[in-house]
Each structure stands twice: as structure tokens, then as C-alpha cells.
Request: fold
Amino acid sequence: MNIIIAGDGEVGFYLAKSLSELNHNITVVDPNSELLKRLEKETDLLTIAGSSTSPQVLAEANVAGCDLFLAVLHDESINLMSCVLAKKLKATRTVARISNAELLQPKHRDMFRDLGVDDLVCPERIAAKEITNLLNVSVATEFFDFSGGLLTMYLIHLDGDSPVAGCSVKELVQRYRNIHVRIVAILRNGETIIPHADSVLTSGDMVYLISRPNQLEAIKEVSGKQDISVKKAMIVGAGRIGRNAAQTLEKKMRITLFEESRSRCEEVSGMLSNTLVINGDATDIELLKEEGLQSTDAFIAVTDSSETNVLTCLHAKKLGVRRTIALVENTGFINLSQDIGIDTIINKKLITASYISRFLVHGEAVRSKWLSGTNAEIIEFSVGKWAPATRHPIRELPLPQGSTIGGIIRGNETILPKRDTQIKEKDRVVVFALPKVMNIVSKLFV
Reply:
């Protein structure tokens, strides 16, 4: 696939490097020539220094032969204008990154589609939703729904108290016969493992599970974790993520929101009805203590500084807060942050890549998720009428090493597949795969 990425910083840089590993033809347009020099040193991508709102620059990037045009600059107005121009210049599909979630309303989406912007992605909105979901399912480090919740992916950290540490996958299935979960991957010491029956789970593993609905109690039993009832939460950072999270969470719990900028405090105070907004520096631990940190159930740090977010979460954890969530923009920090005890990492680059990746595979991809701490992806496919996957049971499918089928949704029925399971037309199939094999896997469902 021919892809043009218009960016002005790390999101575009990350997408370019990640998508190039999937064997797409990538051209990067960026006004920052120094960043492009860095990209050229690390990859063999074609780069063009210039503005993505310039028809001449877009023509130089061969936008007329572009299958997918991605505008992921920090300025949403530039992204929208870039997509409009790219579409007029015959780009096949355009996607714009936005920060104003109001633009996602159907009437606005339709308007932009008429102008030539096919899709909109708002990482801040998705991040806020992930935070609220995680506080509702506190036993999981990561949580993702497919087909409206008919199948769910959980990421569970196995600690020393887990009853399954030391068990093989086969032993786990035999011990918990009434539990409807399937292990699709294990993250161990930075390595992603696709398990088989004899794979042994160890303390410290991060385990990806696919589950049928209403299996939360079973997940708790397997992991050895107790659910945390979150009645009080602190949020650090009143940007779009913190503000959106507070607007949702204040309906269910007591929220205290910290923000250093006085003007931003005044702005968000008018948007929130049941949140205590405090103008102060959240790295001041005495201030946090004064405001009740030690009686807080969850601590969420989403400032523009990854270092501040990690540091304040570590202080909160040390003082007894049971659930911590940090926004970390440097992907190199993700594994380190989880290793030192932060429960969940939110990353806007991964969020953007997750949304965009559904357009990059063969077949009809419905939902997708790039996973924190690993380069793997989990994606939901809609099975085509003549798909190769419908011709043989799963045991006979040529699934490449580095992939596994996690679940099947057939109408309102959920299936945790076995070797003799037969996939059918119109099924929705949830697949876990490493990037190098995703395109091979996707062809099975076209």
C-alpha cells in the first residue's frame, strides 16, 4: 500500500517507522527538516520537507498514487485542510487527527466527508474512554472490547499471589473447566510469546486473555486479583484527556483535578459540575497529601510531561493508592513504567496507530488495537464470502507462526475456538498477530 504521512513530530515519526515494518511504501511530509534527517538515518523511507497544505509538496509526494493519506500534525486545522487537498488531488482515502472531540459528532463527520476527509481520529477522546473503562475493570492493566462487548481482551499481570503461576496452559484449562477464557499471548521480559498447550505461566508475566461476556469474576479467580471499588480518584492535568475523563467519571465518583495553569483551571471549572479543581503543582507531594491522596482509590496523571506523570504515579503508589494510570508519550518508557509498578500506560501514538491500522490490512477490519509494551496487534476481521478461512477447520488453516485466533463472533454468539472449529462467512474473527505476519493472516479472511 502507498501511504503518505503528514506530520510535525513524534506521532508521524512513530507511525512512519511502525508502518514501514509492515512492508508498506511510506512517504513522510514534515516541515521539520531536522526530524526528517533523523528518520532518514533510521529508515530507508522517502521524506519530503515542506507543508502538507502545499499542492506542490503533495504533488511531489505523488499524492495522486496514494492509497492512504494520514495527516497527524498537532494542529487539527492543518490536518483537515491537508486531507481536503489530498482528496482533491486524487488520494484514495484520507484520515485526519483531531483534538476537538466535538468534530466526531455525526453531522460534523458527514460534513468533513463531503469535503474529502474520510475519517477522523481523536487520540485524546479515545484515551479518556480507555481511562474510564480501566477504572470500571480494575483487575486488568489493559482492556478492549470487540463487537460491542461480545468478546473482551484483558491484559493481566501475574504476581506472586496468582494461583496459575507455574501452571501450563493445558493445566489451566483443565483446572478451570467452567471458565470461558483463552490465552492468546504472553509478554515476558520484553518478548511476545504466542503460547501452546505446554507453555508455562510464570510470576511477572503479562498475559493477554480473550473472554466471553460476564467473565470478570472468572478473570479475578485466574489472576488472583481482587477488584478495586473506585469511589475517589485524582487526575493530574486538565488538558483534553484529563477534562474528558473528569466529565465522565464525576458522574460516578468523587474527582479532584490538579492543573498548574490558572487560566486552564478557570476554563475547565465551567465545564465540570462535580469535580474539585485545584490550581497547583502535582509534583508537590505535600499538596497531594493535604487533598487526600492517601485515601484515594485511583490516581491518573495525564500532563504533557511523561516524566511528571511517571513520577507522580510512583509517589501515589508508594503512599498506598491501589490503581495508577499514566500518560507516557515516549514509547521507550512503556516497559520501564510497567516494570517499576505503574498499573497502566496510555500512549497517544499507540492509540493513533490502533485506529489507523484497520485501513492497512487486506479484508474488512472492524476494530484493531496496538498493544502496550509489545509490537503485536489484535484485530477484528469480518469474514468474506469466499475467504480461505471458511474452507477448512482451524487446525488446517495456514496460520503463520506469530499469530493465533482468539475468538469468533457469530451473530450474538461468541465462540472460543478449538482446533476443529469451522469459521463461516460473516463471522467476526479476533486475531492476535505480530506485525510481520499480519498481512499474511488477513488474506485468510478476504
